[in-house]
Amino acid sequence: MKYLSTRGATPPLSFQDAVLTGLAPDGGLLLPDRIPNVSAQLDSWRSLSFVELAKQVLTLFADDIEPAVIARLVDEAYASFDIDETVAFTELGNVQVLELFHGPTLAFKDVALQLLGKLFEHILGARDQRLNIVGATSGDTGSAAIAGVRGQGNVDIFIMFPTGRVSPLQELQMTSIPDANVHCLSVNGSFDDCQNLMKTLFADLAFKDRYHLGAVNSVNWARVLAQVVYYAYASLHFAKPVSFSVPTGNFGNIFAGYLAKRMGFPIARLLLATNENDILARFFNTGEYSRGPVRYTVTPAMDIQVASNFERFLYYHLDQDSERLNAFMADFASTGKARVEQLPSAEDFGATAINEAQTLEAIRAAHAEFGYVADPHTAVGLAAAKQLQAQIGNDEQLVCIATAHPAKFPEAVAQALDGQSVTHPRLEALRGLPPRVEQIEPDLEVLKAYVREHGSS
User: Fold this and answer.
1) Which of 34, 152, 344, 445 has its CA 20 to 30 A from that of 408?
2) CA angle (224 as vertex; 81, 216 as ends), nearest 5
3) Annotation marks residue 386 as catalytic
4) 55, 109, 118, 208: which is the annotated catalytic residue?
């Protein structure tokens, strides 16, 4: 299987090259040249554990790595999780919550980034190469990426986050890591500023090649591929088709569900749930993709106005026509908005935006009715599930994606639950640890200078 850029100007790449490349040289995002249809395998896969199903799915897309090696990497990646089955279900009335936060940093990003770290280690080791990973985070990606590669001898990782815009515990999960290959950069700006810095840096092909830049953000195809697995696993867990309510800001999480549906897994609808930064919800309801000012909320991982993975979906929506996609992205870059003629299918997607008051009420409601404490991002998904429930048929199972342990957001939980605290020993152990962080302005030359000084070449 080869990997193609959405922009259409990058020669096809192998899976291993796609993993190391991250963002395509032409500025596009990489996608497989075909999507396997697994309909014939579904019955035999229903009894598989999460880990065994992951091996089956990854083997379809990574045909340049021996299946036995993939199996080993998967086993190693998910051995770091707190529960044997990697993910867990909790029933809240007619909604099943799929908990993806039982990994080392207590966030759904661990599902992908523990695996991506193992892939980097294997590929770089086999090729005797080094990599400077540059990433931007609005919260959980940074700590999960660091956890995946910390201490690796052939990787340096540079993670940017917006100053004061991630939770204190999320920041500590990044800045308290003592490993010399970890570099945390606090950027005086928004997450979109961080993401734009990363993409602009990758667009400088001479610098990218000279300093062997790689990506861990969901622009990296392997990130999305690993996330496909939990949609596949959940869809096979129930006797009827599943509709997923997905809190999303960067579109990577829900795009993985879209791919799983295209592969033939029994998925009915994907309910897209944004916070007040509603660029994606507006697109799916009106066809217009228009940037607005970033609103800062109790769901900081979703405080995003430019969704980096949206381009992958748009490529499929525009019939894999790179010329039309390039025109759309050029319009958006020059005017801050662009439009499609035909709305995405309502049979595939529902979409809504949940405000801060609704988010806090969803936390209160889940606790009052079921004794369940949800983090604010998961609460966005719960609120959207309730709001869009009329779109779900009686023959479908509704599943809400739970993205983080509530202890990562104690301020929001306390605000919703009259001061109630929720803790986790792994997080409590971080308090008081000395931070290792560099403050920078959102300036490309400043970032380049830092990578030159501290990266490997």
Assistant:
1) 152
2) 75
3) no
4) 109
